[in-house]
Amino acid sequence: MTDPPARRRGAWAPAVLTALGVLAVSCGTGERQPPSAARPAAPAHVAAYDAGWRAGKGMYESGGKGTAVREVVWGGCARRSLTARPRRVVDRDRGAWVLGCRQGVSGEPHRPPAHAVTRRETDPGLLAGFRSWAARNGAEDAAAGAARVVLVRLGDDAYDVELTGGHDGGDGKADAGSLADAFTRWWDGDDGDAGVAWNLLILSPDGARLLTRDL
Prior knowledge:
Oligomer: single chain
Low-confidence stretches: 1-39
Number of strands: 5
Number of helices: 9
Order of helices and strands: HHHHHHEHHEEHEE
Helix content: 40-55%
Distance between the termini: 92 Å
Structural class: alpha+beta
Shape: elongated
C-alpha cells in the first residue's frame, strides 16, 4: 500500500531542506560571508570616489558648511589626496577621490563618476620654460636634473605638477629639495584657463615620490 499524500509530503520536506543545506555549504567555504563578499570589486574610480566622499562627509559632519570653503575653494581636498588612505585605493584615481571629498564636504548626494577622473598630460613647454628661467636666475644647477613635467588633472579645475628629476632617495633628497625650491620660485601658482595647480610632486627616475610642495 502506498503512503497517503500527506505522509509523502511530510517525508519529502526534511529531505529537501537537508539537500539545500548541503548545497549552500558546498557552494562556499562553509563560513558566513559579509554581504559585500559576493559582489564584484568596484571599479578603481568608484572605490576612490567612495573613500573621498566618506572623508568629506566626515569633515562636513564635524565642521559644518564652512568646512567646504577650505576644502573646495582653498584646495583642502586636493592637498589631502596626497596623504589620504588607503593609498592603494586613492592612488588609482586621485581625481575621483578629490571629487568625492568635495561633494561629501559640501553635503551633496553620493554620485560616483561614470568613468576615471584623473588624466595625465606631459608638458614639454612647461619644462623648457622652467629650464630657461633657471639659466637666467642662477638656478641652473638645481634645475639640471629636471627631466619631465606631467600635469596630473584631478578634475576640470584642479591639477598637480609632477616633476621627474635625476635624484633618488637617501642623499638624493637634498638635490630633490633644491629642485623643488627652484621650481616653486619660478611657478606663478596658477595657469588661468588650465585651472589651479595645488601640489608639486618631485619624483625619482623610477617614479617614486620623493617630496611634495604646495604651489
